[in-house]
């Protein structure tokens, strides 16, 4: 087990009706002016936005609204939010939505806390934020784990680059998680969310070479097994509270570093997927992950077949072939791929509309234009990335 630091300061308020507490919670912290940041029409249509703003009004808290966040949140939207926060003297950013809204809120908080600095420079590592406005979240989609993570991912539309950076200031001050708010999430987005939750732990589990982490392994395996079961239930019974609650809590735990404690890792599939949805903004992040992971897994598994075989046995209850662990490893990859298909998720990038001639450009961007390789159980440079993209095109 490697040395590690585990830091999860986010206050979690979980359960039925909890979103109605938001006014009292914000008042506890003494904030005076809130930016209420949200996505599209659903927040208005369901009455959630009115309920949130009404709860703030009831406590005498001022607010301004900024809606319109899209999937794969954009730099231009974040810059609008930064300008609005500075004009209105906002002291707190409240995200009402899923991971895209929360990431956009985090980027706004970074920019408003560092006026005069181009916020994109934080994502290119040309600058580091000196501080940020505090952020809170009311979660409406179980997927990204951004409600409890240090990560933030933004797409720069001008150059088609989707980049992320981590900061302790990105961990929300509080997150309100009411599983009932996810009942109306579409089957497709529920599937995307289930994949994303699983991938946050799968990438930690498979993404490094640290071997002696038995407790962390068991936590990760338990989460993966439970999410697969809950995802199947939510797929056929969208208003099953226990399944929705399991997915929501698992999403937070999957990306708050619990399932990687003591392990070094690189999320290679996430990095490669960022180039997909950066260049093709219509691709949902979870769909991109499901389309890439089986090809990535088949490409790298020979470097550590025992790890993939352990996953197959412990998560999917497959029989272990001790004489040929690779056979068990490949069977585990296949059953995962079949599970993604059962959720109506893609397992190749061709069906996502990716053009074969873009493979070189995606790989080049994923190397940060030749300045990096991706470490892992098998290191990936441009040639290796191109081969995985080709496999995912032909799958």
TrEMBL record:
SUPFAM superfamilies: Dehydroquinate synthase-like. GO terms for cellular component: cytosol. It holds the Pfam family Fe-ADH. Keywords: Oxidoreductase. Gene3D superfamilies: 3.40.50.1970, Dehydroquinate synthase-like - alpha domain. One of its GO terms (molecular function) is metal ion binding. It comes from the Bacteria. Residues 193-393 form the Fe-containing alcohol dehydrogenase-like C-terminal domain. Residues 9-179 form the Alcohol dehydrogenase iron-type/glycerol dehydrogenase GldA domain. InterPro entries: ADH_Fe/GldA, ADH_Fe_C, BDH-like. Its EC number is 1.1.1.1. Transmembrane segments: none annotated. This is Alcohol dehydrogenase, iron-dependent. The lineage of its organism: Bacteria, Bacillati, Bacillota, Clostridia, Lachnospirales.
